[in-house]
């Protein structure tokens, strides 16, 4: 079953030129795709459509089987709970500990969750990303790779149907980038559909995963990079 369907989707910001033009793609549930392209190709705009931060200026788009034009503002929070997003700039709260940054996602999702269950789940996911010993630390005390792993734990703790990551390996060394990729791959094996926007060509080539290539606002699905 398709998770995302786009038919001649275009996007522009206000009265500006189109940044995405006639996008056609189908993302099946459980797939793992990279999104690639040079700076300015439209990757971030494409991702913003997927997590409903923007809507197409024209064309047809369906997300989770719903026409995005029919999703009301009141329904958006419910839809977004099915989507985990790892932002390029992390967006961690510096005044919160690592534990509380991750826990916040659960508290927003379920305000009735017990403290015992919350602590168990947060500890499990921090252990999964290798940061259980950093639970009491604050983001300014962490390296870029550690911050990225906190952001990943926060994005996936709600078991999203769709995970979107914008340049998750852009601020880390090659060894950390490989480790992060394995975390995404494990999540994908659990059933989550994964889309990662990246410039990391060696990582994409080594993975063997298909690629959505953006160039000048146009998208081409590829089995592998040319």
In short:
With 226 residues, the chain is of the alpha/beta class. Helix content is 33%, strand content 26%. It contains seven helices and ten strands.
Summarize the amount of helix as a percent range.
Answer: 25-40%
Strand elements, count: 10
Residues in β-strands, percent: 25-35%
Strand order of the largest sheet: 6-7-8-3-9-10
The number of helical runs is: 7
The major beta sheet can be summarized as: 6 strands, mixed
Radius of gyration: 17 Å
Keywords:
6-stranded mixed β-sheet, 33% helix, 226 residues
Structural write-up:
With 226 residues, the protein is an alpha/beta fold. It has seven helices and ten strands. α6 (174-189) links the parallel β7 and β8. The model has no long low-confidence stretch (mean pLDDT 91).
Outline the fold blueprint.
Elements (H helix, E strand, L loop, with lengths): L1 E11 L5 E11 L3 E5 L6 H8 L7 E6 L2 E2 L8 H5 L2 E4 L11 H12 L5 H14 L15 H13 L5 E5 L7 H16 L3 E5 L3 H7 L3 E5 L2 E5 L4
Helix pairs in contact: 3-4, 3-5, 4-5
